Amino acid sequence: MAQASKPKSYPFWFGGNAGLAACFTHPLDLVKVRFQTAKNQPSPGTIRAIAIIIRTEGPLALFNGLSASLLRQATYSTVRFGVYDIIKERIPKDEKGELQHLAATAVVAGGIGGVFGNPADVINVRMQNDGQLPVEQRRNYRHALDGLRRVTVEEGPRALFRGLAPNVQRATIITCAQLTSYDFFKQTLLATPYFTESIWTHLTASLLAGLVATTACAPVDVVKTRAMSASPGAKAKGTLRTMAHMVRVEGPASLFKGWVPAFTRLGPQTILTFLILEQIRAIYDKRHAKVAVVSAPAAV
User: Where do the Solcar repeats start and stop (predicted)?
Assistant: First the structure.
């Protein structure tokens, strides 16, 4: 009798591979960054903003910072998904479905991923925001590695960790909201008679996870973006202090600037990420399943 079993854990790089879904939603991420860095200015709307960028800067401007975005996914997503899976595998089997254990695991994984991804994130934000700055203030990084080199030389290595606090906070929130809610929604759906382990279950769970993640991390995301795009001489402020200042000067809605492009980006990105990840895992399971052969005792 042959019995297939799933591998105990998956390769560390699976999360980074799935994170490349960000390529498809990069233009929306660029629009979100520009909305968030625009102080005391009304947002023109996502579609109109895209049209303005195409008209004034050209279609390729929508992909400014793509190399940095890919580098960020290769560091941030790889680490957070990898650490999440490693820790989750060590949770006792009878406790794996408990929300508090999944949330704690996601917080740790997100925080570590945020630290590793911060340098690429700084370059990504700056390259995306460059087009709306006055010509004399633009940094004009040629690509991600050029940005990393120039920041290190011109501003010092510490500048690569600008906005680290809000970035780590955002990473823990979004990882907790995204990964935990995906696992929670998936388990909840599978517990009903209407869903099975299928692409439709993954699609539904990931869509709900994207909605939760976008809303939960919006305020910290705005603070992170402003900190990373600030000029070298700008004085850093704490996350809560920055939020309080924004609410006082710009109103509470400023904490959710760029929510629509953020969800328009993060929703599809979350769906693509988990769909790709689930398919990679399914292929891996089929190719690496261990078959135990149990021989029936000979008749006497």
Answer: 10-90, 97-188, 197-283
